[in-house]
Design a protein that fits this description.
Elements lengths: L7 H21 L4 H25 L13 H27 L3 H22 L10 H23 L10
Helix pairs in contact: 2-3, 2-5, 3-4, 4-5
Keywords: Membrane, Transmembrane, Transmembrane helix
Length: 165
Amino acid sequence: MSDNRLNDNEISALLQAFDEVNETNASSLKQSTTFKALLISINIYFFSFVSIYFLSVNGLIDTPGQALENEGLRSALSARSHVIFWILSILNISAYFNIGFRTVCLTMFIYVLNTVIDNIVLFYELLSFEHRPYVTSFVFSLPLTLVGVVWMGIVFQNGVDREET
């Protein structure tokens, strides 16, 4: 068995070769403050919805009355919480790597628009701040998220399109 260890010169050559890659990746992560604020707020908004949903379904927080007794509403919210988790994961990954971010924003916009229409049309009579405050506040604040997703897609700075000065 041969001893194939790297010496100091080979290690420094490897570090210098990858130093340029690190500088390129770090420069492509520069986004505006508006974009960062929108990304953080959308993440917090959906994370809080998913957290409140799972805490209320598992009985860890008190929901007034029979908030999630309707099987259709519960199954719709369960499926939507799983889908939005994966869309947010893909959104954050694509924002970090600058790959297909606007496509993911468009997908998220279509999904959230579909969710808004479904919630208003299918579950309108079930929405009440007295009986279902968490779900109702989520449904009525969801159109603001549509604006945030569109705005985030507009202010995103693609690392390839931007000119370095």
